[in-house]
Design brief:
The chain is mostly helical and 174 residues long. It has a domain of 79 residues: UraD-like (Orthogonal Bundle), CATH 1.10.3330.10. Helix content is 63%, strand content 0%. The protein contains ten helices and no strands. Helix 2 packs across helix 3 and helix 3 crosses helix 4. The two termini are 17 Å apart.
Length: 174
Amino acid sequence: MDITAVNALPYEEFVNIFGNVVEKCPIITAAVWSRRPFVSLNALDAAINEFIDTLPESGKEGILRCHPDLAGRDLQSGTLTWESREEQTGAGMDTLSPEDASRMARKNEEYKKRFDFPFVICARMNDKANILRQLTERCQNQRAVERTRGIEEVKKICRLRLQSLVLTDAPNKL
């Protein structure tokens, strides 16, 4: 769909279509709907990013807590959102060796204990080896650094999800 069609969507349909561009956070999409019309995909993406940026730190951590563990229970049980399932399987999270799966589970738990939110990385921009390496390295960060890093990853995920829903060529003529 193009940006003109996006701008014409009624509220409920807009939220239904875009409600998971930030994982399990349709309230963000609901909030940015009122900023229509958007002149482009970039403007829609910027509106979402601006909303996230204005949240208090606790709100940003709430966004991070909505994300599932990579290669975790939800992937194994088939309860991921379809977007997360596609992203994780594309990065090979469903084909980890038993050793890597065990290491991933341990590191995910270590990370959550340290930061009180799950590790978030844009799986579509990484492979399983890099994800495991980043998880290990990022466990060493300070909480504020990691919260900021996690939110930057959320924004990358959001951007890619938006690109799969909205055509990027023609800006809207207002």
